[in-house]
């Protein structure tokens, strides 16, 4: 509620501190998703100060605030140099979803007669979101059941004259593996189709891992046939949210991502991104982070991240009932369970121990698992993480699988969810033992188990209702 009179700053800050009391920590490495920590407080402090310096600068009009043009040129140039084509044109965006949205828009506008996007089933849902917003059709292709990389023959069979864009991931988020970019890009080029590499996670990680000694396959703009690539700086660039870059092989394709309108009596509009007004704070934060770390800093973080990932993979393989899915090239590790160890219960038990492991549902033959994003700070706590995972696995073994009441998935699938109000939905959830208020306290195994038992479309409908009820 809006107060009758303004409150003093100390009181407001105290309220914010109280509001965050139930939040998980953003630093330290115990939250293994959503946040990226170098373990270097001085770097993050530099980013915060730079962020605040340009907080009030509006990126809507580059002629009014030339500082943001200069900073964006530097940030885009750094990404282009790292990703195989120095000088490549690009756009600074708010995150991976917006970078992907712009790449899809550019492809759509470059080939307006083509209305399909061909992508592996492991590609990020941001492509589905972009297709939904932009009126395109997604054509999913399978991945190898052992390596989890996109099937090249299936990609080739799916690409035709109706295809606007072919997608490869470097890496795919679910298992941290790099798709065969060289082969997929060659197929796209041979058929006159654009090819986007989603390197939102790996763009600012894989080059440094390669330099640190990891075997990283070709994936960037140096690969013939790759026409655009996305790279998040707020992931392994360690910049504040939201900071990402989308690069294009040539300026003409970048121009297809832009939007302009002069069909009204106001000021002329030209946008590089999906947003119009936006703060330059994230841009300044990203610029400061890149300069505060430099090449040596990122290489050192890569060495630490690589060592932590190897120790995590080895340690998980020694815990009874657990296994790592695939052979991750990036520092993303998916841990599957067994009939004796339910991964949803494992995640809940790990949360009790102060660790957040991200649950991932089964899909397209890929089993349910928990996901760990290894960052620069993880190495200092990897042994403690393995101890927590082992303890959580043992607790999950004792508890058994998360129960799903008999007939509940079928009942949920049969409901007309649009006819149920948010309060009614919360009551319905409570009647089967799901308290939406407890989800923020880590008690989500029952919800995950129910979602896993549903088909993807029903999952999506239920997730929308969960979100709506949570905010109501």
From TrEMBL:
For the keyword Lyase, the answer is: yes
Cofactor(s) it depends on? pyridoxal 5'-phosphate
List, alphabetically, the Gene3D superfamilies matched: Aspartate Aminotransferase, domain 1 (3.90.1150.10), Type I PLP-dependent aspartate aminotransferase-like (Major domain) (3.40.640.10)
Kindly give the Pfam families that the UniProt entry links to this protein: Pyridoxal_deC
- Sequence positions bearing N6-(pyridoxal phosphate)lysine: 235
Q: Which UniProt keywords apply?
A: Lyase, Pyridoxal phosphate
Classify the source by domain of life. Answer: Bacteria
A Gene Ontology biological process noted in the UniProt record is: carboxylic acid metabolic process
> Could you cite one Gene Ontology molecular function of this protein?
aromatic-L-amino-acid decarboxylase activity
Q: What family does this belong to? A: Belongs to the group II decarboxylase family. Sphingosine-1-phosphate lyase subfamily.
Q: Under which name does UniProt file this protein?
A: Pyridoxal-dependent decarboxylase
